[in-house]
Design a protein that fits this description.
This protein has one domain: minor pseudopilin epsh fold (3-Layer(bab) Sandwich), CATH 3.55.40. It has two helices and eight strands. By secondary structure, it is α+β, with helices and mostly antiparallel strands. The strands form two sheets. The protein has a four-stranded antiparallel beta sheet with strand order 3-2-1-5, covered by helices on one side.
């Protein structure tokens, strides 16, 4: 949209020499404008990257605790469904103690003497997370009850999550 101002005398050559008077429409952006936008975007991207890096250890710890809780709930459900004991053994792999656990099915309703491996897990997807402490390996019984045990997971920053198995079979993460 171009506005022209009519000069006295209607001298077209003078008006053409001076150019249009009033707002004109610009097409595109100047190189300086684009460079400023790119610089601002780069600064925001760097800030976001380093901000996310500081949060990763806590997210990994939460993810590992959620995985353990899910497998403990699975052991409890299997014990009730199959009418057998189920035990979760932490640190079973001697090559990387504290970084894995296994789910075993017992051969009886109580007092099993033979345990069969049904699931093996590691914390490989949760780098920096390991088992710090286990009171004893939790056992789940056919009535849905369990042994009173606490599993402590720790990340490389020292943050901890405690997973408690109650006698009722309930599992709590704190």
């Amino acid at each position: 949209m171009t506005y022209h101002l009519f000069l006295e005398g209607n001298d077209r050559s003078e008006r053409a020499r001076k150019g249009p008077v009033g707002p004109t429409r610009h097409k595109g952006f100047a190189l300086v404008e684009l460079m400023v936008v790119l610089a601002v975007m780069a600064v925001l991207a760097v800030m976001g990257y380093f901000g996310a890096q500081s949060l990763l250890p806590s997210y990994r710890l939460k993810g590992a605790a959620s995985m353990v809780r899910g497998d403990l709930n699975q052991a409890r459900a299997l014990a009730a469904r199959k009418q057998r004991e189920y035990r979760v053994t932490f640190g079973a792999n001697k090559k990387s103690p504290g970084n894995d656990y296994e789910l075993h099915e017992g051969n009886q309703r109580a007092g099993s003497s033979v345990w069969t491996l049904t699931l093996a897990r590691s914390f490989s997807d949760y780098r920096g997370v390991s088992v710090k402490n286990v009171t004893d390996d939790p056992v789940f019984y056919p009535r849905g009850t369990g042994s009173l045990e606490t599993i402590t997971l720790q990340n490389n920053r020292g943050d901890e999550k405690k997973i408690t198995v109650f006698l009722s079979g309930k599992i709590r993460v704190k």
